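User: Could you check the structure of this?
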Amino acid sequence: MVKPRSVCVYCGSSDRGPEPHREAAVKLGQALAREGVELVFGGGRVGLMGVIADAVLSGGGRATGVIPEHLLRAEVGHGRVTELIIVPNMHERKETMFRRADAFIVLPGGPGTLDETFEILTWRQLQLHDKPIVIVDLDGYWRPLLTLIEEMILMGYARDSFRDLFIVVKTVEEALPAIAAAPPPAIPSFTDKI
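Assistant: Sure, the predicted structure tokens are below.
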């Protein structure tokens, strides 16, 4: 794949995560800004979402947040992003983030991050898109998820080819090179079916 113009980053909105995860989010944000890759994210000012957006903006990069009205009313919206897209609900948030991104990077997060990750993987499995998906397994954070996926394959609930839907790296420094090394999409995005 050629260098992406934009990358959607799924990550946690909790401020209680470990400091090394925050540091990694800063490094990824700096790399996105340095490479001229637009950040597409959930639009929050809290947790790793806020950290990565701040790092992109501090580096002179572009950060586009997508946030549902109810979260904006809860005052968790990031007020300094380049563009803040307000949508009526979570479903439109995820679809808008999908449409705005050329690739996806998954950092540590909670149930919302897991939901977004499995949805984008499922859409790729269903051949609704062929955009690269990179899971950054910081400190083994996603090891239980990867073990679960292996168990699904072992028990016959997923095909062996499910492993080919995503790339796992250990550090944020490896994420953008992994996207650049991914083959170009073999199928167009069928966004009318999403």
